[in-house]
Amino acid sequence: MSFTELVTVPAGINPNVSSAKQATMLALLGNPRQSYDQECREVTDIRLASMIVFRSVGRLKVRGLGPAVDSLERVLAAIEREEPAIHAVLGHVGMLCARNVRGSNTSISNHSWGTAIDVTLEGILDRRGDDRVQVGLTRIAPIFNDHGWFWGAGFRTEDAMHFECGDELVRQWHRDGLLAGLAPDSAPDPVLSLGDRGPEVLELQRKLNETGAGLVEDGIFGRGTHAAVMAFQARNGLSADGVVGPMTREALGL
């Protein structure tokens, strides 16, 4: 069997791992640059740029955030132990790339912080958005998950080539002091806000639609979802800031 043979997305992926929230990334790592579009651009934030490293990890050469590269090195070592044949054909098409998520003008890609990687198998990149994934990716995704990385096959628009450091892992770096000089002393509460995407946003949209919001359930926290959150908050006596924190979650039954 070729590792690039296509199969359906497995059930139960990303257990106990969530995609990194925009609010978490901005609060703990800063804003990589002041403007974004669909083009890969350089990080302009001096403090963040000082934490970007370029080095070989296993058989890959990568450029990314220091703690993310360290974690990736451990992931690749585990893949080499557990899936040596896949490790031998593993490649990538980039880690650091300051841009928006493809097709969005509100969501900053986690590549912008150098905390995500798009991988190839046998030199082939999995096609995005067809809800089919390379079988080799299904075998290494649990290893990424075990190290706190979120697999992009879990996005509403399937993105199986993509792995990113999860929200929990970024917060662990903060607790471990790996973001000293870059992050505040305390981490913000986990929230959903403009620019987020993933299963949690999809569930938020479903709950809002139960209240009559009429949203397209695409798993992307865009301006329509932001407006619907603000309208819901206003109707329920909450601060209409468009941010889904503990009080709004409780009111929506999330």
TrEMBL record:
Domain Peptidoglycan binding-like per the UniProt entry, residue ranges: 197-252
Any Pfam family matching the protein: PG_binding_1
Superkingdom: Bacteria
Ranges of residues in domain Peptidase M15C: 103-164
InterPro entries given in the database record: Peptidase_M15C, Peptidoglycan-bd-like, PGBD-like_sf, PGBDSf, Zn_M74/Hedgehog-like
UniProt protein name: Peptidoglycan-binding protein
Lineage: Bacteria, Pseudomonadati, Pseudomonadota, Alphaproteobacteria, Rhodospirillales
